[in-house]
């Protein structure tokens, strides 16, 4: 046994001094097979219970292997969080249909987290990294108590007043103050629900699918900007300006994607959207077929100004810039399969607008 | 075949609309088995060639499985970067010893990247995410040309002067200006080498082992701070102040770890260092045995001030605060195995220092 451990150490950690040991799955099964007999006990036993609701196990070997990989993600997550009082289980959508119904599991392929009397659906990247980070966040108290001198200074800096609830939208400098007093829990929940879709939202691994599903009538305005790259940083600053100017426009929401956060998707996006992601980009994506049009910044030496970007966004919101061709195929798009090539899209109009500075 | 694809889609992507499809390994072998006959051809053929230098394939089944997982990481990386003209190969330290010697591969378990006439050693987390991000960075030109009006404004904002090379250390507001003119390539390389170890450095997945190996006489001053958490953010601001005050002290380097960047290591660190990582922490870690001592902030309502932190750091650098007991075992620590329990460490001294504000 000692020899094996040593080998592993040599193969995988020979560069590491002590202090940075990534966990490998230790082979111990921690994920429960949930069924009618054990689900109540599991719910009672753990502070958090995470249930993966899945399709029946496939008979095909290749697919079985994929299924095992999914199980492995859960097993490793369970191992890493072993001392955090979190239970993990699998619920088969066919075999355990009754249990699923009782627990209110609906979306096959989702992970449901039971905490106290609430259910939280995890709708992010299915990797141990993302899951562990998400679950550690769920364990934390969602309300941060401001109760020491340092934090009071923080609060004052934000010009927070007594008995006032301020709502900070991402990337906004000024908060919205919740109207009405005294505020009930329902008032607050209602306000947050209404203002949840931010004018500028960052795509995050832990809820990326949720964000993507929350589209604007089937489209997203998507901006790619690498925060650590000088061009990307500048472009992001412009986006923030645009968002601050338009924070009261409920129709507008820009999804900001930092390619650095999604290395495995970067080349897929480049291919799907026919883009160079080494540069900042902004465009409109149709979420049904991933068809897209992008603001042409390739010939411009400068990035667009906030005003130019707002003009373009106005064109998008009014439908003047859209992902479909302006010819006859657009009228019956709901009933037929339309193939629109990137080349057939006419974007001379914008080129003109942004070339005029030269 | 259509059925299989559909199934997969249902199981893994049922939440996704189009636009966010994570790649699954497609089963095609792309990683080469490098040997004496093919290594020269491989070097010539690709813009980048990545060679994983590994121990001979183990005979034990469990270890073989781990080895296959490592191969899978490389295969998925190769698949994702398929159109980027990057070759991938494996070099067996026993079977291909001659090739390894010719190519200058030294550290088993490392990945070597050949670009033009240079070799870059990857010394980060061995995951597809991290590898893809790292390789995309390597593909980019390391020199950013400042050649348009927008970027010139940037440059002016940084008060960059003609024919001057400025060196920005991480988290510093003021640059160091490289002395002497005209500057040769060697001057610049030499200056960067000398100033490479920053006063405050962030641990990053892509070079975490390299950073960790670059210790200060066997220890690291490690600060844990979650940038997205209010306390963590405040503590990081204090750390930056300390770093700016001490940027000219070559003895001081603080490794800042944002636990959010390393979800899989968080509970390992909590266990190894006996810490609560929901709060900011700072301490000294002995990299040989991961023994550590941490500044006691648990009884304080406030975080330490920059001055208090500097006093503590002075104690660390002078050896007054260290990871070993002050008794007789310390004198012969190089020749014997010393077990120092956390409980036996006396840190009343600091408690006094920081309790004095109450």
TrEMBL record, chains A, B:
Q: Which organism is it from?
A: Takifugu rubripes
List the protein's name: Calsequestrin
Q: Which key words tag this protein in UniProt? A: Calcium, Glycoprotein, Muscle protein, Sarcoplasmic reticulum, Signal
Chief localization: other
Q: Name one GO biological process term.
A: regulation of cardiac muscle contraction by regulation of the release of sequestered calcium ion
Regions of biased composition (Acidic residues) lie at 343-358
List cellular component terms (GO).
Answer: sarcoplasmic reticulum lumen; Z disc
What does this chain do? Answer: Calsequestrin is a high-capacity, moderate affinity, calcium-binding protein and thus acts as an internal calcium store in muscle. Calcium ions are bound by clusters of acidic residues at the protein surface, especially at the interface between subunits. Can bind around 60 Ca(2+) ions. Regulates the release of lumenal Ca(2+) via the calcium release channel RYR2; this plays an important role in triggering muscle contraction. Plays a role in excitation-contraction coupling in the heart and in regulating the rate of heart beats.
Any one GO MF term held by the record is: calcium ion binding
Which gene specifies this protein's sequence? LOC101070433
